[in-house]
From TrEMBL:
Transmembrane segments: 20-43, 55-73, 79-97
Record key words, sorted: Membrane, Transmembrane, Transmembrane helix
Species, as recorded: Marilutibacter spongiae
Record's GO cellular component terms: membrane
Domain Lipid A biosynthesis N-terminal: 25-98
GO biological process: lipid A biosynthetic process
Pfam families recorded: LAB_N
GO MF term set: lipid-A-disaccharide synthase activity
Protein name (record): Lipid-A-disaccharide synthase N-terminal domain-containing protein
């Protein structure tokens, strides 16, 4: 499976993009990890104060996990990328745990 995951995705070639499934996973994770700041910005703007919505932690955790898997399992295998994404994964998981523990699974959207 490792070889398949490092080969270019055939159905993307018509677009001029030559990327492997691992590259796509890594780019998606990086986009998600960066995009969480847009989610935080919109929520803070809406409330008129700094707010970190639960979606921020989900995007942090999933984005970190995806980029971490890219650096661990693709041909890239870069220790810098692993370290850079390992610690945010733990922080996001713990923050998500605290948010769920403090506010419950179905928190009221009106109170942040």
């Amino acid at each position: 499976m490792g070889d398949f995951m490092n080969q270019p995705i055939v159905w993307l070639e018509w677009t001029g993009l030559y990327m492997s499934p691992w590259k796509l996973i890594g780019l998606t994770g990086a986009t998600m990890f960066g995009g969480r700041w847009l989610v935080q910005f919109v929520a803070s703007r809406k409330h008129g104060k700094p707010v970190i919505p639960r979606l921020f932690w989900y995007m942090s955790l999933l984005g970190s996990a995806m980029t971490l898997s890219y650096f661990l399992f693709s041909q890239k295998q870069d220790a810098v990328g692993v370290i850079q994404n390992l610690f945010p994964s733990f922080t996001a998981a713990y923050s998500l745990y605290l948010d769920i523990r403090h506010r419950g699974w179905h928190r009221d959207r009106a109170t942040h």
